[in-house]
C-alpha cells in the first residue's frame, strides 16, 4: 500500500479513468434530459464570499462550511473571507439577485457540480460530492412543479433507474392534518419531524416519541399514527383533510400535480403519501421524494419553496425545484453504468527508422475517429509490445518494420481472433475504419 | 446595476447558459481529441493537504495559494490544513505516487478543470480558471514528446484555431548555446531568462539587459542577440551547436521531434526556434510553445520534465506534457464558438382543463428528443404566450384549447414563417420530429 500522504484528503476522492467515465456518463445523460426540458445550465464559482453563506444553513450547517483564509498581509489574522460552496441554492439566489432581467422569466436552470461540507467522512458520505439540481424561479404555476417532477423521473429513467416511486405530499396538507387531529399549533413542527420517521421506525415507536418528546396527548398520537399507517391511509387522510381550508387546498395541490405529471411518470409510479414530511422547513407547497426498491432513504427530492430565494438574499419570487442524489444513484448503478473505453488500434514501434511513418499512420487513424495508441515504452521486442497492446484491450495491433515498409504494407493483427493480415499502407485507415465500426 | 454584494467574488465568474455552453463545447472537442490518443481522464479533489502544495511553486507561488481554515475546535487557531488546487501537475505527482501499479505504464492522462490562484485579478486574469493538461508519465521515448505535440495541435484544430505555429527548442540545445558562446556557467540561468524576452523586446534592449542585469560581457551579448535574431538564425545556431555535446544532443532531440510530429502537424506549422526558452526551469528535454496570429504570448506550451514528478513527491519517472491555454483560446474564439441552444417546441397553456394533455404532448415530444418548453407564467392570454415562445427562440408554438381538444387537433404555429397548421393530436410527435430534424 502507498503511504497515506499520497492519498486524497480525508472525505475526498481521486477519480481514475473508469470511475470518472461512469460519472461523466451519468451526468451527460441527466444533462440531456434537462436540456430537453429547456432548463439552462449555470456554473458559479467554487467559492463565495463568506457572508453570502454564513447563517443560511443553520448552526449545524455553518460549522460544516469550509472557510478560506484571507491572503497576503491579512493571512496572519487567521480570518476567513471566502468559503467553499455548500449547496447550489444559495448561489442560485445570488445569481437571480445579480442578473435579474438578463435571465429569462421564469428562470429554469440546472446545475451539476461539486459542493463541499466538512462532515465527518463515512461510508458513502464525502466532503466533496456532486449535487445535481433543477429549479424554476419566478413561476407559481402548478405546471412548474409538474415539470420538476417529470424531469426528475425522466432523468432517473435515462440513467437506468426504472424501479422507483414518487411520493407526493403538500405542506398545506400537512398543516391541515395537524388541524384535523387537533394538534396544538405550537407542537406542529416537532410533531411533523417525528412523523417523518414513519418510513424508518415502527409505528409504536413513533407514537411513543410523539408523546414523550413532543408532548402530544396520547390519544391524538395514537389516532395520527394508526390512521397514517393504515392500509387505507390515503382515504382516511382525504376524509380528514376535507375539514380544514389548508387541508382542502393541500389535497387540491396534490391532485393537480398527480394529474399533470401522470402522462410522463405513469400512474403506478407516483402517489399521494400522507406521511411524507421532508425535514427542511422552507417548503411552502407540494413536496416530493423518490424512493427506489432496495435503497434506504430517497434518491431524489424537492418541492415548492416560495419564500426561500428572498430569505437567501435574492428577490421575493416563487420557486420550486428538485435535487437528484447523484452520488447515491451512481453507487446504486455500480458496474451497470461502467463505461469501458476500448482502444481501437495499438501501433507497435519495432524499428527506429519506421517510427515517423508509424506516427503518420496514427495521425490518419485518429483523423478517421479511431482511438489509437502508439507504443511509448523502451522495449523493441515485438512480443512485449503485443502484450502491451493486449493489456490496453486493443482490438487491433499494427506491426510495421523495415521489410513491411519495403513491401508497402502494414501487418494488422486482430487481437480478438489472433488472425493477421497484410494491408497496403495506403488503405490502412479505410480498412480499419470498416473493421472497427460495427462494434466500435 | 445590481448591488456589488451579489456579484461573484473578485476574480471569479458566473457562467450563464450562453458562455457556459461555449466553454463546454470547447472542452468537449478537446476531450474527444485526447480520447482518440488514448489519454485517460483524471479528476482529483478541488483541495489538497496544504503540505502537498507548499514549497512546490516557489515563494511567489506559495503566496497565491488559497488556504482553507481548519474546522471545529481548531478554527480558532487561524491555521490552515488544506489548500485549493493551484495547478494540475502536483496532483498528478501525488496520484502517480499513490496508485503506482494500478495505473497503466506509461500513464497517459488528460485533465480539464478549475485551479485557483490568489493573483491580482485583471483583464483576462482570474482567480478561478480552467487548466487543460495532457501528460505522459513513465516514458522517455521521443515518441511520447511527439504525441504531446500532435495532441496539442489536433486539439487546437478541433476547436477551430487553425492559424498557429509550434515553436520547438530543447533545454540541452540551450545549454549547448551558452557553451558555444562562452557564457560563464554561473550566468546561464539569468541569461536564458533575458533571452526569453526576444519575442517581446527589441534586440538592443535584450542585449542591454544581458550586460546590465546579467553581467554578460558586451561582445558575447551582442553576438548572441544578433545571431538569434538574424534571418538565418536557425542555420547559425545549427552550426554553433555542433561544437558541444549538449548542443549536438539537443539538435538531435529537436530534429527527432520534428520528424515524428510533421505527418500530423504539417511542416509549415512547426519549427526549431533557437530563441525559445520557456520560463520554468524544470524542463529537461524538448520544449515547445504554440503561438497564434494576432495573439500576444502563447496559447499552448509544454515539454519534457524528467525530474519533476520526483521533485513534487512522486516516484522518479520520466515525463513530458503540454498545457492548452483554454481560457485564452475561449477568449480568442469569442462568438465564433458560441453555442446557441434553440427551443424546438414551445407549448402554450391557454385553458386550465387542457393543461394535463399539454403536459402529455410535452412528454411525447421530449421522448422524441425535441427540446420542448411549457409556458409556466401566469397569463392565460395567447398573445402573451406567443411572445414568450418567440423570446425563447422556439421554432414552433403549439396551441391547444377546449375547441382543439374537441376536434382532436393541435394548432402548430411555425414561428419562422408565421404559418399555422392543424395537426391531429395522435400525429403530433411524428409531425414535429419530421419538421425539426433538418435544421435541429
Automatic annotation (TrEMBL), chains A, B:
UniProtKB keywords: Aminoacyl-tRNA synthetase, ATP-binding, Cytoplasm, Ligase, Nucleotide-binding, Protein biosynthesis
Instruction: Please report the stretch or stretches of sequence annotated as the Aminoacyl-transfer RNA synthetases class-II family profile domain.
Output: 1-333
**Main subcellular location of this protein, as a coarse class:** cytoplasm
Gene behind the chain: hisS_1
- Subunit record text: Homodimer.
EC number assigned by the record: 6.1.1.21
The entry's localization annotation reads:
Cytoplasm
Which biological pathway?
Amino-acid biosynthesis; L-histidine biosynthesis; L-histidine from 5-phospho-alpha-D-ribose 1-diphosphate: step 1/9
Reactions catalysed according to its record: tRNA(His) + L-histidine + ATP = L-histidyl-tRNA(His) + AMP + diphosphate + H(+)
**One Pfam short name:** HGTP_anticodon
**Which Gene Ontology MF annotations are present?**
ligase activity
Per the entry, what this protein does is: Required for the first step of histidine biosynthesis. May allow the feedback regulation of ATP phosphoribosyltransferase activity by histidine.
Q: What is this protein called?
A: Histidine--tRNA ligase
Record-stated family: Belongs to the class-II aminoacyl-tRNA synthetase family. HisZ subfamily.
Look up the domain of life of the source.
Bacteria
Gene3D superfamilies membership: Anticodon-binding domain (3.40.50.800), Bira Bifunctional Protein, Domain 2 (3.30.930.10)
Instruction: Give the organism, scientific name.
Output: Actinomadura vinacea
Amino acid at each position: 500500500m502507498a503511504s497515506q500522504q499520497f492519498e486524497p484528503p480525508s472525505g475526498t476522492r481521486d477519480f481514475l479513468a473508469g470511475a470518472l467515465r461512469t460519472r461523466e456518463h451519468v451526468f451527460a445523460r441527466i444533462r440531456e434530459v434537462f436540456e430537453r426540458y429547456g432548463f439552462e445550465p449555470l456554473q458559479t464559482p467554487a467559492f463565495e464570499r463568506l457572508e453570502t453563506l454564513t447563517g443560511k444553513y443553520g448552526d449545524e450547517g455553518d460549522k460544516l462550511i469550509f472557510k478560506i483564509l484571507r491572503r497576503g498581509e491579512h493571512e496572519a489574522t487567521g480570518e476567513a473571507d471566502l468559503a467553499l460552496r455548500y449547496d447550489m441554492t444559495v448561489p442560485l439566489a445570488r445569481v437571480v439577485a445579480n442578473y435579474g432581467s438578463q435571465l429569462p422569466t421564469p428562470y429554469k436552470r440546472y446545475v451539476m457540480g461539486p459542493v463541499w461540507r466538512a462532515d465527518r467522512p463515512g461510508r458513502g458520505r464525502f466532503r466533496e460530492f456532486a449535487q445535481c439540481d433543477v429549479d424554476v424561479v419566478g413561476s407559481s404555476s402548478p405546471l412548474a412543479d409538474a415539470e420538476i417532477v417529470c424531469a426528475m423521473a425522466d432523468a432517473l429513467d435515462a440513467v437506468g433507474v426504472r424501479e422507483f416511486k414518487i411520493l407526493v405530499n403538500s405542506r398545506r396538507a400537512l398543516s391541515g392534518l395537524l388541524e384535523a387531529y387537533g394538534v396544538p399549533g405550537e407542537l406542529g413542527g416537532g410533531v411533523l419531524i417525528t412523523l417523518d420517521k414513519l418510513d424508518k421506525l415502527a409505528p409504536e415507536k413513533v407514537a411513543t416519541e410523539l408523546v414523550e418528546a413532543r408532548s402530544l396527548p396520547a390519544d391524538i398520537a395514537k389516532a395520527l399514527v394508526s390512521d397514517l399507517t393504515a392500509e387505507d391511509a390515503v382515504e382516511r387522510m382525504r376524509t380528514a383533510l376535507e375539514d380544514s381550508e389548508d387541508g382542502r387546498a393541500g389535497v387540491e395541490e396534490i391532485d393537480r400535480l398527480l394529474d399533470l405529471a401522470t402522462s410522463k411518470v405513469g400512474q403506478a409510479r407516483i402517489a399521494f403519501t400522507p406521511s411524507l414530511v421532508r425535514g427542511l422547513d422552507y417548503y411552502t407547497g407540494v413536496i416530493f421524494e423518490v424512493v427506489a426498491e432496495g435503497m434506504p432513504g430517497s434518491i431524489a427530492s424537492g418541492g415548492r419553496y416560495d419564500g426561500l430565494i428572498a430569505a437567501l438574499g435574492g428577490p421575493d419570487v416563487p420557486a420550486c425545484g428538485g435535487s437528484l442524489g447523484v452520488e447515491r444513484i451512481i453507487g446504486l448503478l455500480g458496474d451497470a453504468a461502467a463505461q469501458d473505453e476500448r482502444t481501437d488500434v495499438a501501433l507497435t514501434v519495432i524499428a527506429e527508422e519506421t517510427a515517423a511513418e508509424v506516427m503518420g499512420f496514427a495521425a490518419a487513424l485518429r483523423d478517421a475517429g479511431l482511438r489509437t495508441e502508439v507504443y511509448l515504452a523502451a522495449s523493441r521486442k515485438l512480443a512485449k509490445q503485443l502484450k502491451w497492446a493486449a493489456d490496453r484491450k486493443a482490438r487491433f495491433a499494427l506491426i510495421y518494420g523495415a521489410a513491411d515498409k519495403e513491401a508497402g504494407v502494414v501487418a494488422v493483427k486482430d487481437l480478438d481472433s489472433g488472425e493477421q493480415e497484410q494491408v497496403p499502407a495506403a488503405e490502412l485507415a479505410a480498412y480499419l475504419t470498416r473493421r472497427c465500426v460495427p462494434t466500435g
